[in-house]
Amino acid sequence: MGISGGITAIGVRAALVEPRIVAAGLFAGSFVSRGIVEEARRVTIPLHLLLQWDDRGNDRQMALDLFDAFGSAEKTLQANLGGHTGVPPHAADDAGRFFLRHLRRE
Fold first, then answer.
1. Could you count the other beta carbons within 10 Å of the beta carbon of residue 61?
2. Nearest 5°: CA angle at 29, between 42 and 54?
3. CA–CA separation, 40 vs 15, rounded Å?
4. Domain 2-95 is in which class?
5. pLDDT, tens digit, 9 for 90 and up, residues 11-65
6. Cβ partners under 8 Å of residue 62, min gap 6
7. 28 Cβ contact partners less than 8 Å away, ≥ 6 residues apart
């Protein structure tokens, strides 16, 4: 099972406590407390983090620090120019390929 979503704190917590989740696609941008950053250090599943570089409503450095904190051996940060609603169409394709790699049953 994978998780994808925009409230980062919920995604981090779910990835940490739900053993059926084997991959996470999260949208950087919501406020992230120090507690969530500490929890992220214990998340080891593959991670795809989307960051809109020019999103004025969200703290870019906080998103970068969170990405850095994740304990995942495989983690990808996809940063695109544009604001909160400016996510380019190819970002969904990239996230889809990420989930196909990690959720495909062999």
1. 7
2. 135
3. 9
4. alpha beta
5. 999 999 999 999 999 988 777 889 999 999 999 999 999 998 888 888 889 999 9
6. 31, 32
7. 8, 49, 50, 51, 52, 58, 63, 66, 67
pTM (two decimals): 0.88
**C-beta separation of 37 from 12 below 8 A:** no
Q: CA–CA separation, 54 vs 22, rounded Å?
A: 30
The first and second tokens of residue 71, run together, are 């304990």
Q: Assign 50 to helix, strand or coil.
A: strand
As given in the structure block, the two tokens for residue 78 are 């996809």
pLDDT tens profile 72-103: 999 999 998 887 777 888 888 999 999 999 99
Identify the pLDDT of residue 16: 93
Q: Where in the chain are the domains?
A: 2-95
Question: Helix (H, G, I), strand (E, B), or coil: what is residue 9?
Answer: helix
